[in-house]
Amino acid sequence: MQKIKPDLIEYISILKKNVKINNYDPIYKLDNKIKLNRNTKKNVWIEAYGCSANIADSEIIAGTLNSHGYNIVNCIDDSDLNIIVTCSVKDSTEHKMLHRIQQLTGDNKPLLVAGCLTKTERKKIEKINPNVGLLGPNSLDRSVEAVNLTLSNNKIVFLDDSSAEKVNLPKLRVNKSISIVEIASGCLSNCSFCQTKISKGNLKSYRPGSIISQIKNDVKDGCNEIWLTSTDNGCYGKDIKSNLVELLKLCTKIEGNYKLRIGMLNPMYLSEILYDLILVYKNEEKIFKFLHIPVQSGSNKILKQMYRGHDIEIFKKTINEFRKSIPEITIATDVIVGFPNETEEDFKLTMDLIRETEPDIINISKYSQRSGTVSSRLKNISSDQRKIRSTILHSLSRDISRRRNTLWKGWIGDVYIDEITNTLVQGRNYAYKSVIINNANTLNLRFGQIIKVKVVDSSQYSLFAEFLDFK
C-alpha cells in the first residue's frame, strides 16, 4: 500500500486495509459483499476520490443501492456496472480522473460517473464515453434510478440539485469506527480559483436535529470518530440562523464514547464565532483538538485576487488565540503556490507567514487553471517558478512538521484505533495526531478500540508509541 500523500483537500487518514485516500489514486473500494441472487439485482463496483465529503457521498450511494438489493462487490471483475465518484479540485486531478474514466470505459461495462467533475467538465467526460451516465454531487437521491436506467442501456444525466439532505440516509461505511456526517452542501465563498462552487452551489445547511439523529445512530452503531464535513464548515448555519458553535454544543451532548473531528473552516467566517469556538473546543472532551484553516497565501494582495474574503491578520489571530487556549492543538492549513501575478515578494510573505505560525500540517498545491473560474482568465507564471516555490515550501513544511511532532515525545494517553493493515496499526490521540503502535501485531487490536500508549519517537507524519494498557 502506498503512503498517503500530504496535499489532501482535507487531512484524512487511510481508513482501511487496501484502501487509499488522496486526491489522485483509486481510493475507495467498498468490501461489503452482500450475498443475493444475481438474477434479481446486479453487482456494482464503487470507487471514490477526493475529500471526505466525496467519501461520504460514496457511502450513501453504496448504502442506498444496497438497501434496494444491489450487491456492492469488492472486486471490479465481478461487477455488472461501475461507479466512479470524481474530484475536480486540481488540473492534475482532473487529468487522472479522465484517464480513469477512459480505463473504466475500456471494461465495456455500463459506467456511471458521479461527483464534482460531472458538473465542471461534462463535455470532456462525454468525449471519452458518450454513453456514460452522469450523477451530480447533489443528486444522490436518484442513485437507484440512475443505476437502473444505466443498466438498461439508457443514457442518464441527473445533474440538477435535489432538495434532499445528505443525512439519515442508508450508508455502507468504509470504516465501521468512522462516521462521516455531511452537515451542509455548497458554500458562501466565490474563490476565483475554485471549481467546487460550480459543482456544489450555494450553502445549504442541514438542520441540527437531522445531524444529531445521524450521529446518534452512528454512535449506537459503534462509530467513535465522527467527522463533521462540508465544503466549508465555517459558514455552517448562516442560511438557517444558526452557526457551527451551536451545532457543536448539541453534538457533544450525545451519549457515548466518541470524538468529533471538525472539517475545514475558511478564515473569513471565523471572526464572528472565534472565541465561542475556542471555548467549545477547550471545554468539550468529545472534540478532537484539530483545526483545519486554509490560508492559501501569505500575501494580502494575492488573497484579494483569490477573492478569499480574509487577510493574513485574521489567520494569524485565529492560530494565536487557539494556541493560547489549547497549546497542543493540531493545526492544518492549505497553501497555493504560483497563483497568477504572485511575485517573489508575495511568495516570501507566504514563507514568512508559515515560519511565524508553524502549522503542523501544510497541504501545498501548485496553482493550476480550472475552467469556468475567474482566475483561469489571468496570465499564469511559469511552471518552473511554481515548481521551485513548491519545492522550497515543502522543505519548510517538513521541518515544521517534524519539529512540532517531537514535542509529543514522552506523552502518555489514550489513542483511538482507526487503521489496521498487514504492516501497521494506527490510531489518533486527542489532538488528532497520527499514532503508529509499535509491535501491535501481538495485541490483536480492532477498529474503534481505545488503548493507552506512550509516545517514544516521531516523524514528519506520525508519532510512534508503545502499548501500555487496554481501556
How does this structure look, described?
The chain is α/β, with parallel strands linked by helices and 471 residues long. The protein folds into four domains: 43-158, Rossmann fold, CATH 3.40.50; 176-288, Transcription Regulator spoIIAA; 297-407, 2-Layer Sandwich (Transcription Regulator spoIIAA); 412-470, OB fold (Dihydrolipoamide Acetyltransferase, E2P). 31% of the residues lie in helices and 20% in strands. The chain has 13 helices and 19 strands. It has a six-stranded parallel sheet with strand order 2-1-3-4-5-6, with helices on both faces. The chain has a five-stranded mixed β-barrel with strand order 15-16-17-19-18. It has a three-stranded parallel sheet with strand order 7-10-11, sandwiched between helices. Helix 8 links the parallel strand 10 and strand 11. Helix 9 (274-283) packs parallel to helix 11 and helix 12 (344-357) runs parallel beside helix 13 (383-406). The protein starts with 42 loop residues before the first strand and ends with a strand.
Shape: globular
- Overall pLDDT score: 91
Structural class: alpha/beta
Helix content: 25-40%
The tally of helices reads 13
CATH architecture name of the largest domain: 3-Layer(aba) Sandwich
Largest sheet: 6 strands, parallel
Q: State the name of the first-level CATH class of the largest domain.
A: Alpha Beta
Measure the end-to-end span.
30 Å
Q: How many independent structural domains?
A: 4
Uncertain segments are: 1-39
Quantity of strands, as a count: 19
